[in-house]
## 1
Amino acid sequence: MASVSAVLLRRSSSRARGYLQLQRAADGTVALHFSERLHWWWWSSGGGGRFGARAAHGMAGSRERINNGVVTGGVEDAYGEDRATEDQPVTPWAVCIASGHSLLRDPRHNKGLSFTERERDAHYLRGLLPPVVLSQDLQEKRLLQNVRQFEVPLQRYMALMDLQERNERLFYKLLIDNVEELLPVVYTPTVGEACQKYGTIFRRPQGLYISLKEKGRILEVLRNWPEKSIQVIVVTDGERILGLGDLGCQGMGIPVGKLALYTALGGVRPSACLPITIDVGTNNEDLLKDEFYIGLKQRRATGQEYSELLDEFMTAVRQNYGQKVLVQFEDFANHNAFTLLAKYRENHLVFNDDIQGTAAVVLAGLIASLKSVGGTLADHTFLFFGAGEAGTGIAELVALEISRQAKVSVEEARKKIWLVDSKGLIVTARNDTLQPFKKRYAHEHEPIKDLLGAVKAIRPTALIGSAGVGRSFTKEVIEAMSSINERPIILALSNPTSQSECTAEQAYTWSQGRAIFGSGSPFDPVKYNDKLFVPAQANNAYIFPGFGLGVVISGAVRVTDDMVLAAAEGLADQVTPEHIDKGLIYPPFSIIRKISANIAARVAAKAYDLGLASQLPRPKDLVKYAESCMYTPVYRSNR
């Protein structure tokens, strides 16, 4: 095996610019070469190991020669790379130099037609681009026009993902400046269809894939990721993607989309974000039979094998990135979501957006709704349709907030909350068959099988849907809610749009324009009796980007329920009387960066108050500090 060391020195002056390369071969011989432009290096494991370099001009010993019938071209084939036969493995060993073609293909630094004349000369771009120089704003305008030309949402999604892979800053500027228009494209509902078709639209990997094949080697896999200063990880096992079920490895679209929003809405640096899919198989028969499926074609691992893989993953994350990297669990099935959160929350910095994030944004909507309905949370009754991780997570946070406001125990606060699952109202008579996280909401009452019967019996102020059963809020259900309440609160939270419990138009029409409506997926404004209603979207994107930013800037080492409550209260406080007059229970997404900064400040303040923050000293003005830490996508000038 050849012993190799290399030193790259760039020389730049008015007379010459290029690279000095110091090479040492197996026999100890050292050669010094000069090149105007280094293209790439390679290390070849075939034939006992060979090392070489190719350059554009001026390489010492460069001359065309024929060795064993092979034309070696302009570089002396000192180590036999050109003579390697097809059955000899050749492993490329690359050092990227940010100039020329390599610069144009680096999404973090590529500016396309915005490279200035000086930059084009300094970085060997002359001739590689058309002569015009465009501003970033003009680039953005052109791309937005291009995106709008696509009528199919999935085509828009693919166009934006292509942009992200070739020009990172332009992608985020486009998304930030047009967030209300493009959020449904890069995330729900379009991302659901993208995950379903991920195998056929797959172009290049956008995150890390950790499968059962890597068991025992997860730390090694993490070290393959080029970025080392990771602050936020979003991880899924793909078992419960939105309301679409088990999509296996193709669930990667969710972590990628979530982290795009962490950057665009929360200002977390793109290089500090890592999307991960843990592939333990899939029970989706269609995917197992799909020749284009990109994951393991086997049934899901469960039990000890699954648990050991997750343990190894969490241990490897801490070992590689430290204890202050936030791990967000995303779209795990109920039976794993609660278990993983309970298992790791005491010793790791973890957050489950489906449980805690959804709960925070819904609680914020309920608090804001009371500005119109009146009273406190403790004065009202809440009925949940759906008792999975989202439903019970929301219920638990609402109960915690009621207990804080009313100065009662959480057990007492839970009496204001009722749940309906697939078998009907959850009551104590069903305790023998209930999962542990449902038992705490089993109250004394006669069994009721259907939602309409539960509404008539419980007489709730708010009806909250998270079951993923489309159109389950029927006309009869909403009319019953409207007969009980002057301003019924109707939250149809299930995603994507096809799984929503009702549409905005149905809620407003069937309640005769009296409903306070919110949904998980976006709906267009509705005109009823000459009044325009603007549906509120209870989107987790209100919470998790700002929450994550607050964790990062404070250096928090744990996530607590108090921090989640702080995020919910921070969001509710930004709902003004003007918003309420328009029927909005959330502030507009057009000011989402301001919203995220305020939520980050609330979360960070709570972390400092609880002694969980490690970023010291504590900033005097946390809102300004959060804003100063946020990533901005404006182009930088290159030397």
Note: The two ends are 40 Å apart (CA to CA).
## 2
Amino acid sequence: MHHYHPGGVLVDQDLLVLVSYCRPIGLRFVLVVIALLGSSSSSAFNSVTSSVKPDIYTNYRKLKEQARSDYLELKSLSVGENQIKDVGLCGKERENYVPCYNVSANTLAGFKDGEELDRHCELSREHQYCLIRPPKDYKIPLSWPAGRDVIWSGNVKLTKDQFLSSGSIMKRLMLLEENQIAFHSQDGMIVDDVKDYSHQIAEMIGLGSDTEFLQAGVRTVLDIGCGFGSFSAHLLSLNLMALCVGAYESSGSQVQLTLERGLPAVIGNFISKQLPFPSLSYDMVHCAQCGIIWDSKDELFLIEIDRVLKPGGYFVLTSPITRRQGSPTSSKKGSISTPLEETTKKLCWSLLEQQEETFVWQKTVDSQCYTSGKQGMVPLCKGEDMQLYYQPLARCISGTGSDRWVPIHSRSSSLNSTELKVHGVHPDDFFEDSGFWRSAVRNYWSLLSPLIFSDHPKRPGDDDPLPPYNMVRNILDMNAHYGGLNAALLEARKSVWVMNAVPLGVHNTLPLILHRGFAGVLHNWCEPFPTYPRTYDLLHGNGLLSHIASQGCSIIEVLLEMDRILRPEGWIILSDKLGPIEKVRMLATQIRWEARVIDLQNGSDQRLLVCQKPFVRK
């Protein structure tokens, strides 16, 4: 049965037809036509032919014509463009390179008072075309669940001194053992500490246990300065989506270690710019000794917390500087004076409870509170902030006039037509999209499973690696639309999480994605993504290439950025029209990707491009 869809990504597995596969050998191109006869290549891609079997007799003429067309196009491109050659490797100094965070260049440009540490992509357009190499001792991450608790120390930039000086409670929860970093101890004490802390927070907001977070409306947590992800990992085990946001650090980065564990994280600063989220995005914001002075900068940091918090949401702060001398160790319902008391009153927050160094505030559910006329209240912003993208921090209250102003306790457990219309989405479109992605995920997994979980040639530097050699823990969906891929993976019980990127220039569906309890950010794909190298196991983009072309972005720069953030032996799945797909297939050979085009055979000019990044180093 055919599956037709406006995006034209996939049809049923038995209708998938493998068209051609090109790979670079020196400066020559070799075309291997496998549609009819198969291939003797030793590439891991070969195993896919056994799982995808088209009717070769019915499609003989079409396949023959397609193969001939592919060959002539590749021949003309290789002859006519003598400048095509492999992209070289970057120097060792770029092993952990993150564009847009060049402190020296920012300082020379006149940024100061901390703003030199902020994201400034306008100053980082270096156009150095090279591939970020992995560190000398890099190893493929361990598969989950072991990989959440143990990482290879050679995969991250962390000195022993930085490890020993780690200060916060979350940073202390790790052990350095030979060539590994472990985030647990043999006696289980460290894990128990995190569970006890989570249980404490649950009790402070009136729950019996942290297993009741979901019942209380807490599904998404923004974890600021997340240590190295131990609290986020625990919340993930409770089926909450906790996204770590931390400042860029050239070494010893908490974000990099969190990502290396395969946990959700992005680089983000509380300095001068807003975070890449719309207003009313998160059910809880958490900071445990995250190093931010919250009542500085004319209260702008707390106002930004208020902006991203949903009505009735919680701000949890654990920090010794919030506790005044002589204050009791436990207090409830705003009876205690704190350094942030005046500011939180202006924001219509109520202090639920304090225990030792931990405070919990709750945001009001009454949007009229901000216009009560009390002296010193923060003014309301003008208009919605749906498409704000790294704009300057604003001293005004957002979201009070939005149809999305719905208390977290009043939210329905599943999306209904009324909620979809609030997000500007027609219910028929949404449910059609959901059905399509259920089918697509089945086909993706059928296509990739024999590749990802099959035996793989021994890697450079590995004497006797143990299986499984490949796995997918996380996916970056570069054009997420409604988050349908994320939802379908959850429904299919795949143990992966998805970072849903909503590109600038399309209908902003990020509020809907976050409302569904998924992780996501706004992003301009003409700029680098706010993450460290080797972050994701799989990159996915439906219609991404056409969008990039419409925005005037450099396709080769986007592909190099994809290579930067993809781990060695990671995968890329791109779906688009024939023209953009063929162009990217040619460019893929320059950056050493193994690339295969799949003809969907649904009567459209849509194609699927499946690539794998090799493990390359010198």
Note: The mean pLDDT is 78.
## 3
Amino acid sequence: MAAQEIESGTSWGKELWDQFDNLATHTQKGIDFFERFGNFIRDRSAIEVEYALKLRRLVKNYQPKKSKEDEENEFSSLIAFKNVLKEVADLAGQREVVAENLQNQVLQNIMLLSKILREERKKALNQGAGLTQSLHTQIGTLDRAKRSYEKAFREAEKAIESYHKADADFHLSRADVEKQRVNMNIRNSQSEDAKSEYANQLQITNKQQQQHYQIALPEVFNKLQELDEKRTRGMKEFIKRAADVEYEVSPIIARCLEGMVKAADSINEKDDSMIVIEKYQSGFQPPGDIPFEDLSKSDPDASNNSQTHNSSTGLNHMTGKGTTKDKLKKRVGIFGIFTGNKEDFSDLPPTQRRKKLTAKVQELQQKVAQEQAASDGLMKMKGVYEANSMLGDPRTVEEQLNESVNRLDRLRHELGRYQKLLEQANNQTFIQHSPQSNRVTQNGQRSSRHSNGSSNHENSHEDNGEDHPDDAGSLSRSASESSVQQAQNGLNINNNGSSASPESGLGTSHTSLPGSGQGSTNEQPMNEEYYEAETPLGTCRALYPFDATSEGSIPMSEGEELQVIEVDQGDGWTRVRRFSSKGWEEGFVPTSYIECTLYA
């Protein structure tokens, strides 16, 4: 690898052999720039988090306020805007994903690589500095050896010159000449030794210098080149990774934008216009033409009275309640007309009143169905206790059953009252809009009457100020029982499809309870039908162990197989049968604790 780089001319060790300081500065600046890029990613991630937070705050601030009336009649534009807000919230979530991925997948790796690069650079620079210091030391030794050699050489030359002068001087004794000759020999010997040392140090220095600039220092420079290229590759990879983070969320962002477009396409101006009509339509007819009053041919007082009557009649149609002109000014807007503060909604215009009454009837029908299911469950539990006293005392549920029956009677009575009010409101509408209203009303009434005590129940409320209690009671009873039947079918109640079945014990009125008098004769048929249904409906397996702590329940262990005698009636309990050492045992277990398999 290094040989290929040297041959290709891209090796720092070969091309930049004398640029140690510049390479040290360059690599430091490169790492600083790399860390600055990391700071850029960090700040961008913070901006993404802030952007997502502001988007969520924007969605929260512009979230429409919820109201029951608006939920029933929501404009398509409002629904679309809510969907847009949801998509914007999803966009905020994607920006948070981008911020998290930038921090975890880019920023952390940048910081880690930067730390590694700094450590490798420091190590390489220390190595290069050591090599340079070693070479400088050797060059210093060479310089000292050279200076010693130069000094010894000059002294040797001087000693030779002194010897030749002494030898030519006839006035000096032979001893003085010999002394100069010995000194010359010593100086020559010292000069040769210094020369040899200098030559030796020069050879060592040249060899070390060659090793330094051709092998040792290039290796250091190549390491610096390698870490600098690693930094550059890191920049390349992390920029791509930051873009990939955006690419990864772009399909979801695209779906969010598609959702916004879809929400916009769902807006229908015609449907919104119809909602406005349904929301604010009063149901009144526009006032008719004001007749011309010829004062010359009629009584002036009568004309004034007729004109006053017609004007007030026209105003009554316009305001919806006969509101006077002064009172009309006090209205805060059209919303005030349809508030409906009275219990029978008589303060509303006909159309709005019918809507409120219809909603009230549906609400009461649902309550009746729920209460009917609860009563049936209590009645069946009471029957089980009466059939087998080992399971529990029937008197424990008798009080609850009485309260449930009373609540059911009150709900049915209230349901009948609102059904009659709704029928009257519909009749008034037919009178205003249809010349055949009498025929429609007559055909729309139900004349069937149940013989299971409903007449007594309805007669008990004849003093409520209603014009036709019998018809209202018939309508109330049939409609309420129909609603109960629908709710029971939804709950899979096995009572032969009738809320007035002998099994329920409630269709025959509250007097069917034990000890209440008239209804006591209905107990035997109920028990007979009850025992006819003792055939297992299926099997079940216990998902969890259950310790029977309440009266009427039986214990079971996890995985135990049991027979289903009666399915859950909406109270959260299922009646099962199991075989033990004592024989067959029956009782109730929590429905959520078992997995049932019913027979086809």
Note: The beta strands are 538-542, 561-566, 573-580, 583-590, 594-598.
